Amino acid sequence: MITLCMIVKNEEKYLRGCLESVKGVVDEIVVVDTGSTDKTVEIAKEYGAKIYFFEWSKDFSAARNFALEKCTHEWILYLDADERLMPQSREEVKKIGKQKNNCAYYCFITNNEEANNQSTLMAYVRYFPNKKDIRFTGKVHEQIIPALIRKKIKLNKSDIQIDHLGYDITIDDLKQKAARNLELLLKDYENNVTSYNEYQIAQTYGLLGDKEKAVEYFEKAIQDKYLVNEYISFSYRYLSVYECEKGNYSKAMDYIETGILKDPSQPCNILAAAKIYLIVRDFTKVAELYKKAFQLNRNLVNKKTFTAQARYFGEKILLYDALSTALKINDKEMFNMYYGELIQISKKEEIGKEIEFLDALFNGKEISSSEVELYLDYVNKSNIDLIVNLLNTSSTQQKEILFTRLLELYPQNHGLLNKYGLYLITKKRNAEAKEILEKSFELKSEDSSIVFYLISLYLNTNDFASIRLVMEKALELYSGNYEFMLKFEILKQKLQGYV
């Protein structure tokens, strides 16, 4: 028999959906409330839950262990209120619950991350025998596996799937959650210096945008050879991206190759390597790595590959990125391959109008004014970069209208601002181009090349004061970019005596 074990606080938005998902599956529901002021407890009562109260002590393990003490059945399934047991997994949960064995089970948890525009597939042990000495550890990001290993309980893979809604939130909400976790993690780290805590602290600093602190703790975490490979692999990827942003491409490549060796099944790492090869213009390697990442990603989505921590992409998102990259490197074979994959997906997901729009841009077809508005409905943050790159090379007569309408929808998209600014330069509309590129520069565009375009525009009007300001700010933004600094020093010599 099975007990659903939960800790909750102010979860009226999510709790009903969670309890509905396990209705008829579990035999007991234990809900420990840590201080709700909404209708959480009333909703739990509707489902016959045994409700207990626990004074919050800034320690997730303490609350979870209190909940475990109240469970009376042989098996524990633990969920958070913002999680749902998927319908196809109900029978497997019941089947395992009838067994008498010394095993615990990994469950697949899908996180849809709105802030990062990607999904993650995590395998966590969420289903295990109810034994007295099996308890959680860690004030936050609490773990049950160490206790299971100590009890010599075998860890088995299952096909149980859980949908997690909690990461489908805005960046601001995600940062607020991360700030709360950081306080608990640092407090725990004072008395529990482990590589796992260092890894979690590093990740949290990364979410909060403190890259230097994140690097500091990732570098500490990777010193422990016993840290699980998935965590080591992710740490090296972060370090690689950090070095790449500074223009240290050789060091970035060393980091990402080490990360791939530690866990070859992560498509994110393969794509990170592809981005570095794109910068150093090894386009053959770029195409090869995208192909590998696409297959790895598909294996993860279809669960042909098992890894405890996987970051994967919805296939459309990965295809948009691959197509955009194929345009950048002018690889027609690569473009046609992924375009064919996108067409296959369109047949299943009814995105025919979106394909029609992409086709019109790619082939420079005439687009009517009414079609412009219709097509714009299919632009989203997943495909905007692909559409901008297609529009940049397109010969459609609606090019400028599309640029301006897209800017109304995405006024802070660096790629869009930069491409439109360069388009205006080709039309000899330098004053407008300057205004657009200045906006991109003020938004701290990752594309350092706009510095040189802006300076060129200022030179046309002998605006040396603006050149001086741009050069000063560029040094603040891009001083860590080795390639930029080489070009910048050459420019400084040419402008000597003027600025």
| CATH homologous superfamily (4th level) name of the domain at 2-164 | Spore Coat Polysaccharide Biosynthesis Protein SpsA, Chain A
What fold name goes in the CATH topology slot of the domain at 2-164?
Answer: Spore Coat Polysaccharide Biosynthesis Protein SpsA, Chain A
| Estimated structural class | alpha/beta
The assigned CATH architecture of the domain at 2-164 is: Alpha-Beta Complex
Mean pLDDT: 90
Q: How many distinct beta strands?
A: 9
- Please tell me how large the radius of gyration is: 26 Å
Q: What is the CA-CA span between the terminal residues?
A: 79 Å
Output the CATH class name of the domain at 2-164.
Answer: Alpha Beta
Name the poorly predicted regions.
Answer: none
DSSP helix fraction: 55-70%
Q: Which sheet architecture does the biggest sheet show?
A: 9 strands, mixed
The proportion of strand residues reads 5-15%
Shape: globular
